[in-house]
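$ run holo --ligand "tetrahydrodeoxyuridine" --emit tokens
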Amino acid sequence: MSLDALFEAARQAQARAYAPYSRFRVGAAVRGRDGAIYAGCNVENAAYPVGTCAEESAIAAMIAAGERRIAEILVVGEGEGLVTPCGACRQRIREFAAAGARIHVAGPEGVRRTFTLDELLPFAFGPDNLNAT
Ligand code: THU
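-- output --
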């Protein structure tokens, strides 16, 4: 499936990010197994640790809509660097994605790198460890 729709959804969410403290806007878009797209952005808080990541918001939107499987996810950030998901978000993605699921990392101009979940979170702990598939 084309990445364009995923990128556009992430960009739209990024434009609505609430990031007055870091001024670093992030958008994310998840494609569920049913093909639908769920987007999210980072939402910061004056009590800094309470802020949420874009990936976290997108996954929450997916779950709230009734989807349970991430087929692929795209994250778009600002600047020159690769905005790969933070450690906690890699674990959040793991909960709902297979090891081979693709994680696309984009800048304003488009996708820069694509990783598999297994590359970003090798030897992951997950639902299988608890026999709760
Ligand atoms: N952030 C995300 O939303 N996703 C990432 O993948 C990296 C970081 C947010 C958290 C915080 O609001 C800001 O970017 C700076 O760390």
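-- notes --
Strands lie at 27-32, 37-41, 70-76, 97-107, 110-116.
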